[in-house]
Amino acid sequence: MPMFTHLDESGAARMVDVTGKDVSEREAHAEARVLMQPETLRMIIAGEHPKGDILATARIAGIMAAKRTHELIPLCHALNLTSTRVTLNGCERGTGLVIEARCKLAGRTGVEMEALTAVSVAALTVYDMCKAVDRGMEITGIRLLEKKGGRSGHWHATSPGDG
Amino acid sequence: MPMFTHLDESGAARMVDVTGKDVSEREAHAEARVLMQPETLRMIIAGEHPKGDILATARIAGIMAAKRTHELIPLCHALNLTSTRVTLNGCERGTGLVIEARCKLAGRTGVEMEALTAVSVAALTVYDMCKAVDRGMEITGIRLLEKKGGRSGHWHATSPGDG
Amino acid sequence: MPMFTHLDESGAARMVDVTGKDVSEREAHAEARVLMQPETLRMIIAGEHPKGDILATARIAGIMAAKRTHELIPLCHALNLTSTRVTLNGCERGTGLVIEARCKLAGRTGVEMEALTAVSVAALTVYDMCKAVDRGMEITGIRLLEKKGGRSGHWHATSPGDG
Amino acid sequence: MPMFTHLDESGAARMVDVTGKDVSEREAHAEARVLMQPETLRMIIAGEHPKGDILATARIAGIMAAKRTHELIPLCHALNLTSTRVTLNGCERGTGLVIEARCKLAGRTGVEMEALTAVSVAALTVYDMCKAVDRGMEITGIRLLEKKGGRSGHWHATSPGDG
Amino acid sequence: MPMFTHLDESGAARMVDVTGKDVSEREAHAEARVLMQPETLRMIIAGEHPKGDILATARIAGIMAAKRTHELIPLCHALNLTSTRVTLNGCERGTGLVIEARCKLAGRTGVEMEALTAVSVAALTVYDMCKAVDRGMEITGIRLLEKKGGRSGHWHATSPGDG
Amino acid sequence: MPMFTHLDESGAARMVDVTGKDVSEREAHAEARVLMQPETLRMIIAGEHPKGDILATARIAGIMAAKRTHELIPLCHALNLTSTRVTLNGCERGTGLVIEARCKLAGRTGVEMEALTAVSVAALTVYDMCKAVDRGMEITGIRLLEKKGGRSGHWHATSPGDG
Fold first, then answer.
1. Are the Cβ atoms of A120 and B116 closer than 8 angstroms?
2. C93 confidence band (pLDDT: 50, 70, 90)
3. A38-149 CATH fold
4. Does A76 lie at the interface with B, CB-CB under 8 angstroms?
5. CATH number, span D24-148
6. Which residues of B105-137 are buried (b: 16+ CB within 10 A; e: fewer)?
7. I need a labelling partner for C79 at 20 to 30 A (CA). Which of A51, D28, D158, E12 fits?
8. Which residues of F are catalytic?
9. Which of A14, A95, A97 is nearest to A62 (CA)?
10. In CATH, which superfamily holds the domain spanning C24-149?
């Protein structure tokens, strides 16, 4: 029967003990979407300021958040990411942005939470910068697309991402 | 024509100047959902540890994240929240958790980002604690339900929340 | 019957709502002790480096920790202290250091936790810097000595501090 | 003659150079106590909310603080803990809580400060959540119980802990 | 005779007590320069990527650092900036970048340190992003240009800035 | 042709991927100067409080900032420094302080940014503590003096430091 690894036998939260795990190369790829008015998307992507700071700011916010994941998620291990990339693109149907993050580590733990935190904070940053023109935006589809490395090996989502 | 308040005339990111705004009571209410296998939800809500630490940990993570919003979202003002509450409940159809946050401030800026950050980080914490049993969980429906106070007044989403 | 103000009716943790409280001048005074070998104390206070960096480092660590209390204590409100002082003195009987902190705020919440956090982190810093010569040191007597301001008014501990 | 390793020859604070130390498995076990009115303890442990959020919140606060030790204690090295556990139990004589933390690392430095910081912040969190019903609580007996690994080898306190 | 306000009568560091100061509007304007090879500047300003992420990243880093000044500078008061802007421009003679920051607050303390921290961290970010092509860059001329508000009133540097 | 390693082919900021780099011993040595009135320097170095807390506070601030470099500089990798030292000395001609920092790491990335951040924050701390007596101080000459280790090998500035 599966068990919650983050709870001990009495139900108390604990950081999972990874002392005995091997240091190996690990990677995770996650995705989020920000749904918005087509006009808002047009203003971000193709507006007056073609390379304005909205996408750059969200990209930086996502990268910086990945580094702080262990400060936000109580039972995450602190770790030293060896790579983080965040990309933002208009989705095919013009209904919003697709945000993706790829994180890498040579270490003892997976980096799924770092990639998921990066896309979440990048999405929140887009919301923040555009909320004055479109308060009804919605962040959706935050999910892991793929992970590699570690004991549980390769995993990918059953439906593919857009990126 | 609407403009992005967080960009100056050249497209450069800036913190919006609120020096001249009145100090007033402000409030925001946001929501997120974590979709999961019904069995995962059952384990969280009605499992062996009826009040185990998963919901408590997510609640605390959400409250603490609300206080750190300005460290994560580059152009958010630092502020001193006067109240934060985070609740987690199984959704009606048994397909996941509904997470809500309510934040208050007596200050010069709205607290939407604080409420949205709280639900996002609480949702990520649920993902982290349950990922070993259900890696395909998805975080969805992160949105503002209602805001009060400030110059823009009362606003609520056109479709209601579950909470 | 007294109730835990930090739990709601279902037992869930929450930040206490202080939105309606008055902004007023508040003050707290706390104390901690670090028990150590008399030789260790002698080395700190009267050694080769009479004003060496041990006490200065602990003082700075305490002041900086006071400012970060809300990041450490989950339900504490973020606040902007208007004054913090940390003092360290050898105690009368030569068995250790007495550490005191005084914090002030013009705000809506008490600052007891800030003063208690300051003395705790200052004490931990002394332990860190001296542990190579005296690993058996003990931190003890962390307590509030006095608080002023706010609805609950003036309070002082029944046994006085040394400071 | 013993020397303060955290001061250089002129008395100036420095981070100890561990570049040449071996990466090895290290462990520390620390303890703190929170003395309180028996009625307060009864409310926490055996009250209306038998698994209410007070103990869970303190546990989470302690684990999160362990990860931030190097931000609080000026000369501590940043490190990536591989395991952290925090437990809280009523002490035998009904006069308070005993808090214990166990931290592990595969690295170049000991983790005593991480374990001591975890119990200190967990204790402060208990104080914070219960202070409205019992302001005279006292935190005491913060000490290292045992450490393993590294050049200085195995060490344990001369009087045992309760845990 | 002038005295260091941040030291008490015994020479110990303290946070200056501003409890009794009036809340008023305050403003500071600071500047830094990054000297570099003309070719490096050309690549940043007029290269293949005319609005590439270097300037945007530095701008964001400066704004975010302003909000964290009190975490970096031990005796600075925490405060809630109401406005922060950071600008980067090539200097007239083509020898580097001029970075300027303007911070505002409605509060009890000046915001010089916030503006100075913003330009310093923006400059360090430029160095970081360009160091692989020009390791000999130098950051220079970090200084306050002007401050307004508070008891000490209006102050401006004797030689003007470039901005 | 040299390229900015921190930008991808489209000009977007990214954290450089160091996953494949060897763990090796790395070191960096950086310098900054704080220019001030001779009287200010005299008060710091040779005043009433010969070992007062100004230099100690700046030293501690610099060491703590080195550990937080990756939180400030958006594309810096988080890393666990094995050594950090910060020194402050009056410069020969009596016109200010020379601040130096030496950082070490056994890891995959250089530590130039850590040493540069340490001297910058130490310099800002001196400015903060002395600004009430000498607001016109200027921080200048922030530069790398030397780096060792890693693929790019040994590098030193063409004009030597004072330290």
1. no
2. confident
3. Alpha-Beta Plaits (3.30.70)
4. yes
5. 3.30.70.640
6. bbbbbbbbbbbbbbbbbbbbbbbbbbbebbbeb
7. E12
8. 128
9. A97
10. Molybdopterin cofactor biosynthesis C (MoaC) domain (3.30.70.640)
Distance CA B22, CA E24 (A): 13
Q: Show the tokens assigned to A151.
A: 């004991």
Q: Which residue of A has its CA nearest to B113?
A: A128
Place of tokens 């860059």: E137
- Cβ within 8 Å, pair D59-B51: no
Chain C residues within 8 A of D43 when measuring between CB atoms: 2, 4
Are the beta carbons of B130 and B85 closer than 8 angstroms?
A: no
Q: What is the pLDDT of residues D95-142, one digit of tens each?
A: 899 999 999 999 999 999 999 999 999 999 999 999 999 999 999 999
Beta strand extents in chain C (DSSP E only): 24-35, 83-90, 96-107, 138-148, 155-156
Question: Domain extents for chain A?
Answer: 38-149
Classified as helix, coil or strand, D48 is coil
Instruction: For residues A126 and E54, give the distance between their C-alpha atoms in angstroms, rounded to a whole number.
Output: 19
At A9, the amino acid letter reads E
Q: Which two tokens stand for residue B127?
A: 């993902």
Of A56, A81, A87, the CB nearest to F77: A81
The CA distance from E63 to the nearest CA of chain F, in Å, is 10
Give the three-state DSSP class for A137.
coil
User: Chain-centre distance of CA C153, in angstroms?
Assistant: 20
Catalytic residue ranges of D: 128
- Yes or no: say if C122 and C99 are a contact pair by the CB < 8 Å rule: yes
- Strand, coil or helix: C147: strand
**Cα–Cα distance for residue pair A139/B33, rounded to 1 Å:** 10
The whole-angstrom separation of Cα D49 and Cα D38 is 17
Tens digits of per-residue pLDDT, F56-114? 999 999 999 999 999 999 999 999 999 999 999 998 788 899 999 999 999 999 999 99
User: Any residues with CB less than 8 A from the CB of D27 and at least 6 apart, and which?
Assistant: D102, D103, D104, D105, D111, D146, D147, D148, D149
CB B101 within 8 A of CB B86: yes
